[in-house]
Amino acid sequence: MQTRNHDDVSNGDIGTITGITKTANDVCVHVDFGDGRVKEYDSADLEMLDLGYATTIHKSQGSEYRSVIINLQCAHSLMLTRPLVYTAITRGKDRVILVGERKALCIAIKKTDTEKRGTCLAHRLQALSKE
Predict the structure, then answer these.
(1) pLDDT for 126 beyond 90
(2) CA distance linking residue 42 with residue 24, whole number of Å
(3) Where is pLDDT greater, at 96 or 127?
(4) Residue 116's pLDDT band (boundaries 50, 70, 90)?
């Protein structure tokens, strides 16, 4: 997983290591991002990569995966919200598996008020309509 935006590879992009080349002074890692983008990373650039076997819901926003396993625990009750669970579920293309505690899912489904944002959008739209 790419951890920083760099050239045409964005933070959160997932790739597969297709080769590692060792030279006299350095190592080059070849990563295929599956959409025609193949990048080479030397040892100085490797800090922009991280293993992507598992990721957080927040980090996965905007991405899709064939299968998603979501771990819901009451220990995470402060973070559990309906929009967070919705985001997690919509990442899966073919299969979504929920594991953990049923009570944690109930907590998340019931918690909707945490996502209210103070954008004053309604007020701004009313002001614009009066102009």
Answers:
(1) no
(2) 13
(3) 96
(4) low
Q: Write down how long the chain is.
A: 131
DSSP 70-107: EEE-GGGTTT--HHHHHHHHTTEEEEEEEEE-HHHHHH
Query: How far apart are alpha carbons 83 and 62 in whole angstroms?
Result: 14
pLDDT digits (tens, 9 = 90+) for 97-109: 999 999 999 999 9
Asked whether the CA dihedral 83, 113, 59, 73 is positive or negative, the reply is negative
- The CA–CA distances, whole Å, from 63 to 29, 52, 85, 100 equal 23, 13, 15, 23
Q: Could you tell me the CA-to-CA distances from 19 to 15, 28, 31, 38, 76 in Å, in that order? A: 12, 8, 7, 11, 38
Which residues, 6+ apart, have CB-to-CB distance to 71 below 8 Å? 99, 100
- Mean pLDDT (whole number) for 84-95: 92
Q: Say how many C-beta atoms besides its own lie within 10 A of residue 107's C-beta.
A: 19
C-alpha dist (Å) from residue 37 to 8, 10, 31, 50, 90: 8, 11, 8, 18, 25
Structure tokens at 42: 């030397």
